[in-house]
Design brief:
The protein has 335 residues and is mostly helical. It contains 16 helices and no strands. The chain has one domain. Helix 2 runs parallel beside helix 15, helix 4 packs across helix 6 and helix 6 runs antiparallel to helix 10. The protein is globular, with a radius of gyration of 23 Å. It holds the Pfam family EamA. It is a multi-pass membrane protein. Belongs to the EamA transporter family.
Length: 335
Amino acid sequence: MSRTPADAEPDGPAEAPDLGESALATAGVPVPAQPDPAREQLRGGVYALTAYVLWGLLPLYFLLLAPAGPAEIVAWRILLSLVFCALLLTVTRTWRRLTRVMRRPRLMALTALAGGLIFVNWMVYVGAALSDHVIEASLGYFINPIVTVLLGVLVLRERLRVTQWVAIGISLVAVGVIVVAYGSVPWIALVLAGSFGVYGLVKKRIGPAVDAVSGLTLESMWLSPVAIGILVFVAATGGIAFGSAGVGHAVLLSLAGVVTAVPLLFFAAGARRAPLTVIGLLQFVAPILQFAIGVWVLDEPMPVERWIGFGLVWLALIVLTVDSLRHARRTARVG
């Protein structure tokens, strides 16, 4: 039975009968243009690529923030991200989405957990960028896909294909080579890969119920008391760099919220449009840029043993990527 105006929702008009696009056009009713799937996928790829490029260039931004230390940078990053997200929610009039999430205790708990994980990730990453460990940080994001696969096995009880196990084995050998060559465990890389891998798992649990802006808003909100405590401690022990190192430095540091949120928004826009295989391939752009910055811009040491370790990691990623592409094509043919 067709809906009458009396049956319509209180906040909207009655639905128009399904006359078809040609009939609607003849009747003079404007028909919204359907997005071209190919163009949407291309746009998604461009958005995702932009996000990964921005993430890859982050070490250069953090180096410009000296003499601010890692703790102060992360604290401002949290607080200014919260301010930026609040402005964004106001401009886009999407506060209602956030309040809906805040009425669901399970989602609030998961966003708190996600906030804790991203706090650890940010602290270690910024510390690595400011202490000449950008190459090791890039290693963490190179092995992140391997960690994600392992989490799928250990937490989600997923079954791996043989080639995926081969990729994991090669990556473990790579870490072993680096440990033997340096005589120490690459903790920075492992903590970055582990924290971001578990962060991704938590975000997967949250799912589409929380959009990108609301998610970052809540994560920043949970971390705000920690950030304020950090700034109080920094002010009491050595002085806050913000405002004391010149106008240019203050402007750069005040952009921390924008620098944090913009890549996330580009990524969210890209992930909705681009195929998962494209996103999977593009994720290597960020660590490649970080690696290049560490080797050729910051001139960090890269002896033969380290090249061998990284070479094994890249081999593992090639195996994993080829397997993922083949599996995606096979699934598409079956479907």
